[in-house]
Design goal:
Number of strands: 14
CATH architecture of the largest domain: 3-Layer(aba) Sandwich
Order of helices and strands: EHEEHEHHEHEEHEEEHEEHEEHHH
CATH superfamily of the largest domain: NAD(P)-binding Rossmann-like Domain
Number of domains: 2
Bound molecules: uridine-5'-diphosphate-4-deoxy-4-fluoro-alpha-D-galactose
Shape: globular
Strand content: 15-25%
Structural class: alpha/beta
CATH topology of the largest domain: Rossmann fold
Radius of gyration: 19 Å
């Protein structure tokens, strides 16, 4: 299969972006990271050059596209905390929407016409039925999800105007870390379930707060579709090839089609670490749908993508080493 040789990866210093850069490099594709390092980390940019800049600086994006003779873009750069987006919505609209407008303007300016966009299952909100396929109405329930949906609309409009072709990938819950141990998950602050459960198990963080035990699910806790970050990275590679081969505009879910509850995740962390996860049971976290599970069929049919690392224990085991030591020790 063909693929463009030089890719701009916005947000390549972030968790999913960095894993994607590794996969690109492995496939002989040169990733150029464009990142303002506001949430990303310089030390995970290991597989190509880093251009430090803000997407909203259109001139800087244009210069990066020209300097590296970029043929296609993978766009990860965005603020991505649901909770923060509820408290600081304009920050999210400013960063995520203005960033997209600027990026699309820069691409049009230099004639780059292919883009893979990092979207989210958060665009669906609370689905009426499960599993969630791509015909499910998109009714996001928080500003983060709305920014991702508006970005999808921008892509659709630009594509209809003939300016570009795109693949929007709607991730479910990214999990795990590089199976070869070169990069891991590092968010500041950390809000995600698997990292927090691992930190609780290792004693490098407080007891895990289980948000809600009265959901209409078999064990009362929320169910999510966890997908290994290495699989997400592979899906981006397939999306690039799909566009290079002339594929039509596409929005597709990336999940495994299997759900796991919060209690099942805790059990997996206990199996993998051999340690108890101290927990406290708390009220529901606002904005959490009871169950989000993907129908992964479309990505399979159109991109030939299927998640390989489907075992929850595997995802937890790959993530675990990154949380076995405290952040303080990591900085030493
Ligand atoms: N949870 C806890 N305790 C915690 C953290 C999480 O019980 O300390 C629960 C949550 O209530 C939720 C599940 O664990 O039911 C997963 O929570 P995460 O915060 O790990 O992930 P989310 O499902 O909230 O969010 C993820 C991505 C978002 C994306 C969203 C789409 O991180 O970027 O899925 O729903 F928008």
């Amino acid at each position: 299969m063909t693929a463009p040789a030089r890719i701009l990866v916005t947000g390549g210093a972030g968790y999913i972006g960095a894993h994607c850069c590794k996969s690109l490099a492995r496939a002989g594709i040169a990733p150029v990271t464009f990142d303002n390092l506001s949430r990303g980390h310089r030390d995970v940019v290991k597989w190509g050059p880093l251009e430090v800049g803000d997407l909203r600086d259109r001139g800087a994006v244009v210069r990066a596209l020209i300097r590296h003779r970029i043929e296609a873009v993978i766009h990860f750069a965005a603020l991505a905390y649901v909770g923060e987006s509820m408290v600081r919505p304009t920050l999210y609209y400013d960063n995520n929407l203005d960033g997209m407008v600027s990026l699309l303007g820069a691409m049009a300016h230099v004639g780059v016409t292919q883009i893979v966009f990092s979207s989210s299952c958060a665009t669906y909100g609370v689905p009426q039925s499960l599993p969630i396929d791509e015909t499910t109405p998109q009714n996001p329930i928080n500003p983060y999800g709305r920014t991702k949906l508006f970005c999808e609309w921008m892509l659709r409009d630009a594509a209809e105007a003939g300016d570009l072709r795109y693949v929007a990938l709607r991730y479910f819950n990214a999990a795990g870390a590089d199976p070869e141990g070169e990069i891991g998950e590092r968010h500041t602050p950390e809000t995600h379930l698997i990292p927090l459960a691992l930190m609780a198990a290792y004693g490098t963080g407080p007891a895990l707060r289980v948000f809600g035990t009265d959901y209409p699910t078999p064990d009362g806790t929320c169910i999510r579709d966890y997908i290994h970050v290495a699989d997400l990275a592979q899906a981006h590679l397939r999306a690039l090839r799909y566009l290079a081969e002339g594929g039509e505009n596409l929005a597709a879910n990336l999940g495994t089609g299997q759900g796991a509850s919060v209690l099942e995740v805790i059990a997996a962390v206990e199996r993998v670490t051999g340690r108890k996860v101290p927990v406290s049971f708390e009220a529901r976290r606002p904005g959490d749908p009871a169950e989000l599970v993907a129908d992964p069929g479309l990505a399979s049919v159109r991109l030939g993508f299927r998640a390989h690392h489907r075992d929850l224990d595997r995802m937890v085991a790959d993530a675990a080493p990154w949380f076995a030591v405290s952040a303080k020790e990591l900085q030493r």
